[in-house]
Amino acid sequence: MVTGGAGGIGSAISTLLANDGASVAILGLPEDRARTQTLRAQLDGAAKRLHFYESNVGVYEQCREAAATVVREHGRIDFLINNAGITRDHTVRKMTVEEWQAVLQVNLSGPFFMIKAVLETMIEQGFGRIVNISSVVGESGNFGQANYAAAKAGLIGLTKTVALEVANRGITVNAVAPGFIETPMTKAMPPQAIENAIAQTPQQRLGQPEEVAQLVRFLLDEKAGYITGAVYNINGGWYM
Amino acid sequence: MFAGRVALVTGGTRGIGAAITQALADNGATVAAGYNRGKASAEEFALQMEGRGARLSIHQGRVDDVNDCNRVVQEVMDRHGRVDYLVNNAGITVDKTVRKMTAEDWQQVLNVNLSGAFQMTKAVLEHMIERGSGRIVNISSVIGETGNVGQANYAASKAGLFGFTKSLALEMAQRGITVNCVAPGFIETEMVAAIPQEALAKVVARIPQRRLGKPDEVARVVRFLLEDESSYITGAVYAINGGLDM
To answer: Which of A13, A29, B4, B164 is the most core-located residue (most Cβ within 10 A)?
Structure first.
């Protein structure tokens, strides 16, 4: 299951996993249905392994329903990638309570709801991999992103706690913290902000969604079983 | 995956290093494995690897001796023509509480574990810069983040590797060279086997997964970081510890 699996980084993850033979359940909002269709059109044999489930991860009931449907239709859930995320950027002085709450709800409570929704299945299986897509901003903070940074830092705390709780059940829980990746989310930034981000990145470039997807796939491997509670950065040296 | 590529792995014939050598050779790399003591067992390891069809050379030398570092790199260049990957894995322990640790105990561990990585890096760096590509992976330790009773020297050397890694990553960011750390927890090696049984049982009880890691599991992380596709990962510390002291 890949939440936000038709979005920027998400679509790279979904595509890579489907190409590697996994059945991929993309969770998304209504507009992501068409995006999933576009992804399918770009794939050959793997297209039939991409499935779309309309679900808002900020709503617990919808997470539970999506997980139940996936179990019913596919029989199991091996991997959960909590990737769905939104931004509502403002400095704290201008940030409304609603903007704060909306970002926390999707980026932090969403992963908690999804983990709740799949965990019993993974425990029964005695196997599972959970990867939470955090952000370099969760470690460094970022001007105008108090809500996003708090959510992404919170995700690291969630990752480590769940990792401890399921350590002896064959389930690993890790976070990937990307730097600035070339996605619609970063493209929506003001041009000057993007230029600054690149200038501040020691490698002087944005990362590609595929580079993040490779790292996620690495952590999902059966042989990655001793890696748990870890935060793996991929940021071109932006924050170390 | 690594066909035509050359890796230099210090301490590459034993423990985690041997697993790294094997993982890289199995994926097509030519591997130059360094060792210091134990010529007979290093040669036996080389024979075993060649039996599996590996392209491998072994090189005796001390990473805490700058002349040895330069000589070994020259040997590798003469023999294989290039160095794509440097894995600074060689490490020793001389465990004592600070009260009992001598200046020599301290110095010896720092020289091998930390200065060794610096000296080996110096020896290959100009070559990597000239080619505009390279990967350096430093094997640190969870102890570098947490400290450990009786390991002030080891913990300081392994924490020092984080600082070294990140500084070098910054300096090389625009030269096609990535520099990263892998920080293993307690792994089934001779080094860990030397821990008294009762102490080891206590360590395992503290690991959330209740087991030691395997050298192969660490080698997989190193291999991943060396891949061409991993080029946006630099200055990072990748832990692999079964959930210990996250």
So the answer is: A13
C-alpha span between B195 and A5 (Å, rounded): 46
The whole-angstrom distance between A67's CA and the closest CA on chain B is: 26
Q: Burial-class residue B45 by CB neighbours within 10 Å (0-12, 13-18, 19+).
A: buried
Shortest distance, CA B132 to any CA of chain A (angstroms): 13
Closest CA–CA distance from residue A73 to any residue of chain B (Å): 31
Domain limits for position B37: 6-240
Within chain B, residue ranges assigned H as helices are 15-26, 39-51, 66-80, 103-110, 116-131, 143-146, 152-172, 190-193, 197-206, 215-226
β-pairing, A79-82 vs B237-240, is: unpaired
**A143: helix, strand or coil:** coil
For the question of whether the overall pTM of this predicted structure is more than 0.95, the answer is no
Q: At A158, which CATH number?
A: 3.40.50.720
| Residues A107 and A49: beta-carbon distance below 8 Å | no
* CATH number where B51 lies: 3.40.50.720
- Cα-based angle A231, B232, B219 (whole degrees, multiple of 5): 60
Q: Is A202 close to B208, i.e. CB distance below 8 A? A: no
Q: Which residues of chain B have pLDDT under 50?
A: none
For B158-194, the pLDDT digits (tens) are: 999 999 999 999 999 999 999 999 999 999 998 888 8
Tokens (6 digits) for B83: 């160095």
Concatenating the DSSP letter of every residue in A149-217 gives HHHHHHHHHHHHHHHHHTGGGTEEEEEEEE-SB-SHHHHTS-HHHHHHHHHHSTT-SPBPHHHHHHHHH
Q: Which of B174, B232, B236 sits opposite A211 (nearest CB)?
A: B232
Q: What is the pLDDT of residue A186?
A: 84
Sign of CA dihedral A11, A12, A16, A22: negative
User: For A60-87, how does the pLDDT look when each residue is reduced to its tens digit (9 = 90+)?
Assistant: 999 999 999 999 999 999 999 999 999 9
Catalytic: B238? no
Q: Which two tokens stand for residue A209?
A: 């969604």
- Tell me how crowded residue A186 is: count the other CB atoms within 10 A of its CB: 17
Does a structural domain hold residue A149? yes
Does A127 lie at the interface with B, CB-CB under 8 angstroms?
A: no
Closest CA in chain B for residue A219: B221
- Which candidate in A60, A148, A226, A239 is catalytic? A148
Q: Is residue A240 part of a domain?
A: no
